[in-house]
Amino acid sequence: MNELLKKLFEIGNYKDIIKNFKNYEIDNYYSDLIKCYTLLFLDDFKGARIIASKYQNDLNFLLVEAYINYVQMKNEISFELAKRIIESNNVINYIKIESYIIAINCLTENTKMIENLYNEAINYALCENLFVYKSIIDFVYNRSMALILGDDNAKKIVLRTEFELENYGNLNYYFYNVLYNVNELISEYRFSEAEKKLKIAHEIALKVGSLSMLSKLFLVKHFFNYSKGELIYEDLIKAYEYANLSQNYINLTLAMSYLISYYEFIKDYENRNKILSEYEKLIKENNIKKGISNFLFSKAIVLSGEEKYEESLKLIEEAYNLSNSKYKKSSLEIFKCAILIKMNRIEDAYHLFLKLLEDGSIIHQAFEKEIIETIKPLFDLYIKRNEKLSKNFIKFMIRIGYEDKLNIKDIYNYMDESELLKRINKIKDKNIIKKLKDKLKYEIYLFGKLRIKILDKTIYEENFDRPITAKVFKFFLINRNKFLSKEMIFEELWPNDDPKKASAKLHTIVSNIRKILINDEIIISSGGNYGLFTNDKFYIDIDDFEKSIKYAIAISYKDIETAISKIIYAFNLYTADLLEGDLYEEWIFIERERLKQLLSQGILLLSDLLIKKHLDSLAIVYLESSLFRNIESKTFKKLMDILKLKNLEDRIEFWNKYVERALK
Q1: The 3-state secondary structure of 473-493, one letter per residue
Q2: Can you give the pLDDT at residue 515?
Q3: Which H/E stretch holds residue 538?
Q4: DSSP string, 590-604
Q5: By percentage, how much of the chain surpasses pLDDT 70?
Q6: Which of 22, 171, 414, 513 has the least CB density, counted as fewest CB within 10 Å?
């Protein structure tokens, strides 16, 4: 049963569970429970409800209705059902944690309540050893904050959780995390990166077999192509059909909105009106409140196409007042600018444009070409009235491809460093190149898989020209802040190569590393020696981890609270072993084992400090979670002592249980 529950909730491989269900021997109750939720997550709501109806008073099955009501946009009902499950102490831990997630998703205005639910959910996940759910809850909560408030820090955390969910292997939430980040990349016009992630999402959707996933995938594909100026009707139809089949009204209403805009654009008024009527009927028959804003926006687009501008403006105002998303409000106001220009109300449109520039929301929108063409007079008006162009205006012009309206001086003086970085090979001014390189900062992550962040650009191991280049860079990172002789490098990396060939190889690879990381001084060579030296421009996660543990040890005797906080911070940095895919390099293995021992030392100290604060249960949580990352005898002994397991047989049984779980 545990194995199936893990597959169902932690991994999300629903198709595989259905395929192999007969191979598992479980009693009727858990058989029904797992079948019910597998069908639910594969969008067979009818099948899930039939099974759940056998257990009407059982809260373990109540999540079925909470989930269906959420995807059918009845947030108030869904929230109340999820709340009932959360408040109960008689439900399976996976059911309760998923209820927290639904509750957070349902709340679209009360950010304080969302924050409280988030904190409760995190604590519950840790207490129940559901470590993958910490990343899932981080993703869900910060996605909500990003959508509601346009919070940039929340967006960064959502990006980080994608790596964590990939490492944990959770297919369901990893899929939605990837698609969220695709939307962000599209809004920043980073199409090549977005396309790579779309391929990942497509593979996951096919593997899982969820119609809702496929519907969402084709919606984002439409947005991707649309933002590049391509209208691919087939993507929209697939999104619409899959949403209809899955009865996922969140995706269906969005697909309908896109279809209405598409039919309006190609002047197919018959199909436009047909979808509009279907949309209105869906909202009225199902009493959907959440979808009204999108419906009004779609209707406003139709009225604008019919040149009924006053009526269109009224609907835009209604939709704006009903919307709680900063991104959506910005979309409505941009469309309003276009309508005001069509009504020849240039000054009103200009003042609204200034407001959008000031709060920066216009910068991250993806635009229809028609809208851009309509509001173009505002760009010329802004340039005419402002001697000094604002940074937001310059960034906006760059994003929509209107750099020709700007002076080169304006672009290079005010352009965001990340935008300059993309153009570094085209910049001829040496002072600008030096200024840019001086501002470069590197975030290097070595726990799990290698990744490097330079401004808003992330470099993965596969982005290096060859695997050997990435390997040499990792070698310098592990041996950072000291010069290495050529002989030492050759001995570790190419012991059987001719020294001359090895020297030429090293020279070429170092040159390639400098190009990839846009820094000629990232690796310094002197007198035949090479070294990577860090400074305040470098953040390296393993250094942060080590400093935090050592600082905690140093102050633990006089400041328990700070020491506890530092160790927990370090523990959260340790998302996976050092360069976990590199299993055969001795120089990585030695450093990996050293960091494991440091983690163990920190966790043992943390448990002692928590016990001093009478937080035994939390000490047990961190000791257990540490064992899943590093099976270490001292940690076992400490845990068994806290649990008061004195009998030798009990201790052996306890040891075997954890080894078995870790191996799984």
Answers
A1: HHHHHHCCCCCEEHHHHHHHH
A2: 85
A3: strand 538-540
A4: HHHHHHHHHHHHHHH
A5: 86
A6: 22
Structure tokens at 425: 């090979």
Contact in structure between 184 and 225 (CB atoms under 8 Å): no
How far is Cα 258 from Cα 245, in angstroms, rounded to an integer? 18
529-531 and 442-445 strand pairing: unpaired
At residue 29, the pLDDT reads 84
H-helix or E-strand containing 476? helix 467-478
What pLDDT does residue 78 have?
94
- Cβ atoms within 10 A of the Cβ of 526, count? 8
Listed in order, strand segments (DSSP E) in 371-416 are none
CA distance between the termini of the chain: 14
User: Which carries the bigger pLDDT value, residue 658 or residue 94?
Assistant: 94
For residue 152, the number of C-alpha atoms closer than 13 Å in the C-beta half-sphere is: 6
Q: What distance in Å separates the CA atoms of residue 480 and residue 393, rounded to the nearest whole number?
A: 42
pLDDT over 80 at 564, yes or no: yes
Domains located in the chain, CATH noted: 442-536 (1.10.10.10), 541-663 (1.25.40)
Tell me if 173 sits within 8 A of 136, measured CB to CB.
yes
The chain-wide mean pLDDT, for the chain, equals: 84
| Structure tokens belonging to residue 16 | 């595989």
* pLDDT above 70 for 456: no
Q: What 3-state class would DSSP assign to 149?
A: helix
CA 97 to chain centre: 19
What pLDDT, on the 0 to 100 scale, is given for residue 291?
Answer: 72
pLDDT tens for each residue of 500-517: 899 999 999 999 998 888
Closest CA to 328 of 291, 376, 353: 291
> In this structure, are residues 208 and 15 in contact, taking their beta carbons and an 8 Å threshold?
yes
Q: Looking at residue 414, what is its pLDDT?
A: 57
pTM for the full predicted model: 0.64
Helices (H) and strands (E) in the chain — how many of each?
Answer: 34, 7
Residue for token digits 């007198």? 527
d(CA 451, CA 448): 9
Q: By the 8 A CB rule, do 487 and 495 touch?
A: no
Question: Using CA atoms, how far apart are residues 99 and 90, in angstroms rounded to an integer?
Answer: 13
Sorted by sequence, the CB contacts under 8 Å of residue 369 that are 6+ apart come out as 229
Check: CB of residue 596 under 8 Å from CB of residue 604: no
Torsion over CA of 516, 520, 522 and 526, rounded to 10 degrees? 140
CB of 390 closer than 8 Å to CB of 356:
no
So what's the pLDDT on residue 579? 92
Residue type, 263: Y
